[in-house]
Amino acid sequence: MTPVDFWFDFGSPYGYLMAERIDALAAAHGRTVRWRPILLFAVLRQLGLPAPLAHAARRDYLLLDVERSARHLGLAYRQPSRFPVVTPLPARLFHVLAAHNGAAAAAFARAALRAAFRDDQALDDAAFAGALAARFDGREAALLLQQAQADGARAALAQAVDEAVRRQVFGSPFVHLDGEPFFGADRLPQIEARLAGRLAPADKDRP
Amino acid sequence: MTPVDFWFDFGSPYGYLMAERIDALAAAHGRTVRWRPILLFAVLRQLGLPAPLAHAARRDYLLLDVERSARHLGLAYRQPSRFPVVTPLPARLFHVLAAHNGAAAAAFARAALRAAFRDDQALDDAAFAGALAARFDGREAALLLQQAQADGARAALAQAVDEAVRRQVFGSPFVHLDGEPFFGADRLPQIEARLAGRLAPADKDRP
């Protein structure tokens, strides 16, 4: 069984909704999840797509819809006071942790998304983000923050962005399940049906 | 009880999915549906938004996702051989019928969407669209087609487009339930929960 690929941006509220559900859903069907943080704005720029919140009508709707979607899923949600937030720092910290321990990196990502979208914490605040990363890693926050600015973390994140562009990850959250793409937290019921064998794989050769 | 407003474009495959479910869902909770065909490209142009299929990555995904979403909902679906189709003709025919009989117009719309997305019929084929409209109206197809080109039908459609712009209908399908907006066929579970009282109305004043 290959892992389920879960692509997300740390600034994506729907990414938080997916993050709260995808591990348990996969585990219930004997699958693991590979957490793949990206910088969505960089992926969209390379794909030639506009930012999702560029228009007021879409932004107004998103703010209403994400709060409603969280209630529908039974999840706590609080609209961040600053939104959207550009998120290279937590994404780089993720890669610093992932180089040692993938499970610690995923736990950090889960905690960071909760901090952003449940507790209104700013993930671009280095003191906060560094301390949070240190909770899941043996190293000191100052060292982790230093490594987050180093070439290794930058290269790992750039590589993830490049792979997302190749795989046409045009939004967050985005899931690949045995190669099949699912865009949006609202695809959770289809992902569940697919894992449970109640929904056949999409045939890419269908007309 | 005010009717549920159901906005759609006759060229929208997700509009077809919503059309197959919304009447029964509303009726189960004592509500009626007001069918509101629009020309999505005209609404988006006025809102300053790009067409949803302008990018290959999004289009590739849509073709896969709509077929999968139909299977997930238990609906027959066949990808139209010409896609997308610009749809002023069925939208104008709808308004010709609606001026006499709203229920006949809705029945025509339902049949037209099935013809397009289940039976691969071209709704911009005047002979086909006129004959289909005549099935739900006492008048001859030739007369209905003539009236579809007249000022009254054009004005009624333009008025629907203007109202859609005012209400920020930035996609198809789009539902207003007591003023609350729901975008996409994937919001059917939330619409159902909202109608059943399991989901509270979204508070537009939430942060």
The largest pleated sheet of chain A is described as: 4 strands, mixed
Of all protein chain pairs, which has the greatest interface, and how many residues does each chain bring to it?
A: A-B, 36 and 36 residues
The CATH architecture of chain A can be given as: 3-Layer(aba) Sandwich
Distance between the termini of chain A: 28 Å
List unreliable stretches of 5+ residues of chain A: none
Q: Care to describe what's here?
A:
The structure is a homodimer of 207-residue chains. Chain A has a single domain, classed as Glutaredoxin, CATH 3.40.30. Chain A has helices at 13-27, 40-47, 56-73, 88-98, 102-117, 126-134, 141-148, 151-166, 188-195, and strands spanning 4-8, 33-37, 174-177, 180-183. Chain A is α+β, with helices and mostly antiparallel strands and 207 residues long. In chain A, helix 2 packs across helix 8 (151-166) and helix 4 (88-98) packs across helix 8. Chain A is globular and about 50 Å long. Chain A contains nine helices and four strands; from the N terminus they run E-H-E-H-H-H-H-H-H-H-E-E-H. A four-stranded mixed β-sheet of chain A has the order 2-1-3-4, with helices on both faces. The model of chain A has no long low-confidence stretch (mean pLDDT 94). The two termini of chain A are 28 Å apart. In chain A, strand 3 (174-177) and strand 4 form a beta hairpin. Helix content of chain A is 53%, strand content 9%. At the A-B interface, helix 3, strand 4 and helix 9 of A face helix 4, strand 4 and helix 10 of B.
